[in-house]
Amino acid sequence: MCFPDHNCNTLKHAPTTKPPFTLADLKRVIPPHCFERSLARSFSFLLADVSAFFFFSFATATLISILPWQAAYLAWPLHWFVAGTIMAGYWVIAHECGHHGFSNYRVVDDAVGFLIHSSLLVPYFSWKVTHARHHSNAGSAEHDEVFCPKPESAVGTFDSLTDNPPGRILKVVLSMAVGWPLYLVINVTGRDDYERLASHFDPFSPMFRDSHRLKVIVSDLGVLAMTAILYTLGATHGFSWLLCYYLVPFAVFNGWLVTVAFLNHTHPSLPRYASSEWDWLRGALSTVDRDYWVFNHVLHHITDTHVMHHLLPTVPHYHAVEASEAIKPVLGDYFQYDSTPILKAFYRETKECIFIEPQGNEGVLWFSDRFLRDSFTVELKTFLLKTTADLSSRALYIDTAKSLSGKLKVVGALLWDILTTALSFEFYLLVIPGLILSLTVDIVEVVSPLLEKVLEIVGYYIAPLGSLRFYRETLPVAVAAPFTIRFYRETVKNVLLRLKISFNQF
């Protein structure tokens, strides 16, 4: 047994033999008044939660308007955390209604539970059905309804890829952010043996019998009505207002629900039972109490009295601590408690509680990460053993030396062939003419464009000499021209023009 004030090994496996006590024995040691439900007292806690939520929302709205913007950026996260935590405590009261622990009147419990759950977008009657089944089958490896651990064969790629510190942190964040909505909508972390997709919003889901259909529809209508109210508020005050005063606190509330439910039912010391071994009492004892410090009170002790809650779920939360203390001496080693800080515990359980497997008794299954851990260990061990054996083998060095010697012979032969070829007369006889021819071709390719330009310029001046018209037009002018000043002026001008054109063309 691990009590809060004891320094004990919280990872030691809990006993799995049939307990030496019965449920009746536990009821006898609990003071009778702990079973009494007071409508007025229950409503007082409900009113306190609702008042606290609206008070902090109003206080935030007032302070934000007068605070400097730097302080406002700090005030908003504080408001979101406080408001979301209050919403989680508010939900715990609705959870109590589902167990008929709010009052002596079932109709009152269902009415209050329906209103609270609907305001938090939770389908009350749908959740009530599956949650009752969870309490009836707690600890069963096959029939529990939520946080159903997987067998080794079901460990998939995602678990392998996230089996590292960043991956585990990602899993923690995703679980807190969207775990609760995904459970309600598509039964994530729930039983996976239904014949089709199971959803708390589907009246014909395999989760429900025919007698549940109408209640599921009523639950859906409650959530739909709350959605319409939120839409109206958003349209009136703006989406940012809705985000700050409802949606972000709602996300914090989701994180609280996942954290509490996961940590109260997932722990290395807790067993799961196959059908051959399971019974209700041992299954109900497969839970663990956690310490959430001051949040134990805000969350109405669903956290630190969870073992007692699974044994006696109708005990109202304001008697839960007293009832839990009363049964601890009877429970002895069957009572499990862990004071590990919550975030550290969430990370540890995400790391170590990958799947369940038998360890000894085939009907008793324990959490393990052996598949991932051992797969890596075996691969590393095999590699190291093979490497060690190779390094200690004389044949390795002989084979390596032979291989290296053969490669050196090939390289040496290649170098010798190159050297002898370079020193032979035939090499020069074949290579030098080829080099001369190659250089000649290169020179011709470079000089050819220049020769073409020169010939073009020469032709420009020589071509007219072959024309009869040239002499008929030129001779009379040529004979008379030397006797005129214009001849010399035009001649010089034409020569300069021709030279300019020639240079431009070149």
UniProtKB/TrEMBL annotation:
Annotated ranges, domain Fatty acid desaturase: 75-334
Keywords assigned by UniProt, alphabetized: Membrane, Transmembrane, Transmembrane helix
Signal peptide: none
Record carries keyword Transmembrane: yes
Transmembrane segments: 45-67, 73-93, 214-233, 239-263
GO MF annotations, alphabetized: oxidoreductase activity
Coiled coil: none
GO biological process: lipid metabolic process
UniProt key word Transmembrane helix: yes
Entries under CDD domains matching the protein: Delta12-FADS-like
PANTHER family named among the record's database cross-references: OMEGA-6 FATTY ACID DESATURASE, CHLOROPLASTIC
Protein name: Fatty acid desaturase domain-containing protein
Organism: Bemisia tabaci (Sweetpotato whitefly)
